[in-house]
Write a structure and sequence with these properties.
2 copies of one chain form a homodimer. Chain A is α+β, with helices and mostly antiparallel strands and 484 residues long. Chain A has 15 helices and 25 strands.
Chain lengths: 484, 484
């Protein structure tokens, strides 16, 4: 167990220092590395594979709900970005500008897209002519650049990968329905695939997307008690349609502006998976997005290459045939103990050990990453119990995260209590808010807490309460937290 | 048939003017549209779906041959791009430069990646320490920007999408083997999935990738008799390893530079599919990359909504269940004749018509896009014959393209004949070349033809011939063509 200890010593324990643990485990598990450009990262194969599973699960949902993928240009001419004033003000401090092409100075600066409403709005104005062209339901998988001052791998980087949906509708109701449909889709996706439970609701005026009528979001609680915005869905109203002149002839032959939405999630979700489930030993990946779901470690003693290894190889084949993502770690330069803790650190949900005694008993010893429970499994039809265990692990991660969220959500009634709870317990603070930007700003300045979601009407408790800051009676129930 | 005529009149016939037909069909079939930025395009859903099938088919092959995907930054600092001199000279005229981030002027210009050897080389120097770390087999799906003077949708655009493989090996033989393995993979992929037969071979010194030791490529013949480079695989030798200091401790504990390769195909392949198979009526898509493989057109006469439509819907369900990409066109504002020619123009491989008589006979009338053959199919277990027809269409497209390529490949022995054949027949000209840049340049200047591939030794005919330009005896057999 010496190597085992040595390996664990290489990472700061999460329980000791979360903010040191996070970047260390990202690099140690080879999810990502720092790039030689300010605030940029390289997503390494193990991290990128998680993103590929996120993409696959989400893309399936996006398509089966009627959307199609397309691809719009990376560059947005400055004049287009300037059209929507709030949008410009929101994004211009973060824009990287291309000013030279080959040997030539450009006549107009080109923004490297910080988001694509402007360029897409311009194209929609050419494509949408009649109500028959609506709805337009388009999604794009793309890279985005925002010149961020403070960055952290996956959570906030100068470049990131995301999907951005951009839809146009005949009616206001059509756009509202779409916005909420995607919000529900994101919530279901996050809980089913990432095992990360989320709150959903509205953003405040201050926190909404630059140019939107209303922003909805999902918010997860990370295991250090801080909130993470994991996805947003914007009802754009006719704001962009008006400035980009997206008009259609309606059923009564009059010209109308289209109603639009936009929505997105990004590689930030990889960070959410790390921060929600990880522990002192490293990552704990939900089976549905784990690049390796099962690792087989042969116990390398005696004549293991002749006795144990062939059985391990056969086991690998059986699991592969059942569609399980399995890896056989037959490396000779490492001991089984070292491999155990290495794969634990990398978050593989299930380990199967095969040693001489297991071969004799026609079994493998399973070890769960989440509960560390061990259980012998007969090699006969082993895929069935393995699939069952993977399901159990996925469910257990979600239930544990739900329990954590519940235990770290505090209903608070007065401001002094608010401050104490925030300092001592962290997590979500459920309370009332009068709706004024003054109170919102004051709370942020004094406590660094922000309103993560304003509950939608159907989610509110009946009755009202006093604003946590000014005491004014209010029906607006909100969740505060410190956030990433 | 009036609408039918009208629709066809909207596109220039391919046989009349290929270079007008190409951009017109791209827009008419809604594959792509022009963007408001010089040389950039928007890939619309129908065109992007073709790219998604190309990606899926190719990604499967890349992964099953042992490669993993990753993601490297969009920006490359100028100092990194400058390290490999030939590489810099090759790419610097085409680079878009970011010079401002937010409100700040950057201290160092950042290139929007024209390719990623430099940034990846930098990272590999950090990751590769021992022979145990090799081979590194990484692929990336990404967008690329090259400031092109003359652009054409899909074929040459300022921004395009591609995959770029970047591998590092312990030995020179390892890198050579990888380069050729990928070349063979590209050829098999192009022929199996795109139904586009290709020549493969080496590039000349003049045409090789900036910084490579040797470039291999696949070249397709478009139906106007011009060649298209469809993919390249580069043996980089130790060129980049030396300038980026990618060194490893070998099995004898001495430091060695790694041997590298890089290889890529791009959205240009969508253009290849259009130009290889299209005809006067529009696109002709190979079933394996067609977004819609089968379109069902109900014949809208009399009480069709009560009689025909339910049968058409049931047909749609049966085909979907068999995994076929099917679309039911039940639009009321268009006649069946208009729909026939619209879907023909969009290249859907197979049409199924369902009219009142078909319902009575429990059948659908199939019409192939490639041969225009019609054939009634019983609705009983209809998925089987439909799948069989789709296979036949895929094969027939490949065979037709092979036949075209054969008929348009001319063995020429003297320069006068070379010029006449090139002018009158176009296509590939197979001949001998002495290997000198002088002859290569002279031929290009005088005829606009370039050497598309130098045949590899095992593909050459036995014996030698005289260089088509200077007459000097040579064993270097080459294919010339005018190219995109």
């Amino acid at each position: 167990m010496k190597e085992n200890d040595r390996l664990v010593r290489n990472i700061t324990a999460k329980s000791e220092d979360f903010s040191k643990w996070y970047p260390e485990i990202i690099r140690k598990a080879a999810l990502a590395d720092y790039a030689p450009i300010k605030g940029m990262m390289v997503i390494r194969p193990y991290g990128y594979a998680i993103w590929e599973y996120i993409q696959a699960h989400l893309d399936r949902r996006i398509k089966s709900s009627g959307h199609e993928n397309a691809y719009f240009p990376l560059f947005v001419p400055e004049s287009l970005l300037q059209k929507e004033t709030a949008h410009l003000e929101g994004f211009s401090p973060e824009v990287a500008w291309v000013t030279q092409g080959g040997a030539d100075e450009l006549e107009e600066r080109l923004a490297v897209r910080p988001t694509s409403e402007a360029i897409i709005g311009h194209m929609y104005s050419k494509w949408i002519k009649s109500y028959r062209d609506l709805p337009v339901l388009i999604n794009q998988w793309a890279n985005i650049v925002r010149w961020e001052k403070v960055t952290r791998p996956f959570l906030r980087t100068t470049e990131f990968l995301w999907q951005e949906g951009h839809t146009a509708h005949e009616t206001q109701e059509g756009a509202q329905e779409e916005t909420l449909k995607i919000l529900a889709l994101y919530k279901e996706f996050s809980e089913t695939e990432l095992a990360v439970p989320v709150l959903s609701g509205e953003k405040t005026e201050k926190e909404k997307f630059a140019g939107a009528q209303m922003t909805y979001c999902i918010e997860g609680l990370m295991s250090d008690g801080k909130a993470l915005q994991m996805g947003t869905s914007h009802d754009l109203g006719q704001n962009f349609a008006q400035v980009f002149n997206i008009r259609f002839e309606d059923r009564e032959q009059t010209l109308q502006y289209a109603w639009q939405t936009s929505w997105g999630v990004s590689t930030r979700l990889v960070g959410a998976v790390v921060m929600c489930h990880g522990d002192d030993s490293g990552l704990k990946l939900p089976p549905r997005v784990a690049p390796v779901q099962v690792v087989i470690v042969p116990i390398s003693v005696g004549d293991w290459k002749e006795t144990v290894l062939p059985v391990a190889r056969q086991l690998e084949v059986s699991l592969k045939q059942a569609g399980i993502r399995v890896k056989l770690d037959a490396r000779e330069e490492f001991t089984p103990g070292w491999k155990f803790s290495d794969w634990e650190m990398r978050g593989v949900p299930l380990r199967l050990e095969v040693g001489p005694r297991d071969v004799k008993n026609n079994q493998a010893l399973s070890a769960r990453r989440d509960t560390r429970e061990k259980q012998p499994l007969s090699l006969e039809n082993i895929a069935d119990p393995v699939l069952k265990l993977l399901d159990d692990i996925q469910n257990n991660l979600l239930q544990s995260a739900r329990k954590f969220q519940k235990e770290n959500t505090h209903v608070v009634g007065d401001y002094a209590e608010f401050k104490t709870v925030l300092e001592e317990k962290k997590g979500f603070l459920k309370t009332f808010w009068c709706g004024s930007a003054e109170c919102e700003n004051q709370i942020k300045e004094e406590t660094m807490a922000t309103i993560r979601v304003v509950l939608m009407e159907e989610d509110r408790d009946s009755g009202d309460g006093g604003c946590i800051c000014c005491g004014k009676g209010s029906q607006e129930q909100v969740y505060f937290a410190r956030a990433y």
